[in-house]
Every structure is written in structure tokens, then in C-alpha cells.
Amino acid sequence: MIVTQNTRKELSHIPLETRQSISRIGNAIQVLSNLGFTITLEVIMETVNLSNTENIDIHDMRGSEFYVVVSENEAERRLH
After folding, report:
1. How is residue 63 annotated by DSSP?
2. Stated pTM of the model
3. C-alpha distance from residue 19 to each of 29, 49, 58, 74 (Å)
4. Contact (CB, 8 A) for 78 and 43
5. Sequence-ordered list of residues with C-beta below 8 angstroms from that of 17, at least 6 positions apart, any chain
6. Per residue in 12-45, pLDDT tens?
7. Could you tell me the CA-to-CA distances from 28 to 5, 33, 42, 52, 65 in Å, in that order?
């Protein structure tokens, strides 16, 4: 992506919280996809909420530790 002065202005108008939410959702989808799980809105939101509950930094959502947490959460979800 080419960053221009106009692009910077547009980005500055998008609240940080919104950008962080979009990043969390994208990371959740990537993690679920890499783990081979079925991707539904419910599972995406559960993964996003899990990252918030566990205080996982957005960048750390792509790390192996979070993959383990998501796998354990999915196993628990499937049991109930």
C-alpha cells in the first residue's frame, strides 16, 4: 500500500479502538484458518473475546502460545 498524505489523514480519522478490533478479528480468522477449524462468526468472536480476556497483545495473537490457548478453548467448546 502506498501511504500518501491523504491516506494518513484517512487513517487518523479511524479511531484506534476500531483499528485494533479489525486487527484482532483478522488475527482470529488467521489463527482459526491455520489450525484448520471451521470459521463461523461465533467462533471468530469467541476467539477475539478470548484474546481480550487473556490480555493477549494483538501482535502476540499470531504466536504459538495463543495457538495453544485457542486449540484448548476449541476442544473445551466441542465437549459441551
Report:
1. S
2. 0.81
3. 15, 16, 11, 26
4. no
5. none
6. 688 999 999 999 999 999 999 999 999 999 999 9
7. 30, 8, 11, 11, 14
